[in-house]
Amino acid sequence: MQFHIITIFPEWFRSPLSTSLLQKAQDKDILSFYVHDLRDYAPGKHRGTDDAPYGGGWGMVMTPEPLVNAIEAVSLPLTNPRRVFLSPQGQPLSQQKAAEFAAQESLVLVCGRYEGVDERALAFVDEQISIGDYIVSGGEVAALVLIDAVARLVPGVVGRQESIEDESFSTGLLEYPQYTRPEEFRGLRVPDILLSGHHGNILRWRRRQALFRTQQRRPDLLKKANLSLEEKQWLAQNPYEEK
């Protein structure tokens, strides 16, 4: 899978894209990353990419010509690229959306800056994606979040597929609590059920803990989760109590 990133700050991506799973995936030729400097597509000697907004107001707005030039040039040699603009006004990034992106051959990620971009440039992307209801300095931060969320769903990037399937949001619930050695730490013990060796009981405990945790921390997720009738009844009869 290919990721193409359009940005005025290409140096932003050097360290994150060459670290941990992302670097290993590149070494295996599973993922490829290409960072494109937006200024290379800007006309004029000064390679400007922003200007004052029509109608007045604070800050600067990214001009359409460099953005559209870059989107078209980067997309042209690719097969059915998905062109995504990172924006707080976009659709929220979800695990489902990340899985949808992971099925693409290539993503073109466009990073905005300043007070935003000229609205006309958005006619040249397929969709806008937000990473949450808050503002960050630019699309670069959001692009890195999206890249990490998507890349780990591409087959072969994460060693064991099972570890992905159990994670928060993959099942529609938050993940159950995890423990490792030692059995006791500062008076806090690992739940006995996890030491029992009874895999059926452990799976049942983990599922119920996931239900408990989701009920307490993200009850909104339960409305969309695929729960059995037994689980719905069990949740109704059992107040939250993490054990």
Task: Furnish the topology, listing elements before pairings.
Layout: E1 2-7, H1 20-27, E2 32-37, E3 50-51, E4 61-62, H2 64-75, E5 82-92, H3 95-102, E6 106-111, E7 127-130, H4 139-151, H5 161-165, E8 184-185, E9 188-189, H6 192-195, H7 199-217, H8 219-222, H9 229-237
Parallel strand pairs: 1-2, 1-6, 5-6, 5-7
Antiparallel strand pairs: 3-4, 8-9
Helix pairs in contact: 3-4
Number of helical segments with 4 or more residues: 9
What share of residues is helical?
25-40%
State the low-pLDDT regions, or none: none
Largest beta sheet: strand ordering: 2-1-6-5-7
Beta-strand percentage range: 15-25%
Rg is 22 Å
Based on Cα principal axes, name the global outline.
elongated
Q: Write down how many β-strands occur, each being a DSSP E stretch of 2 or more residues.
A: 9
**Biggest β-sheet strands, sense, barrel:** 5 strands, parallel
Determine the N-to-C terminus distance: 42 Å
- Overall structural class, as computed from helix and strand content, comes to alpha/beta
Order of helices and strands: EHEEEHEHEEHHEEHHHH
Return the average pLDDT rounded to an integer: 93
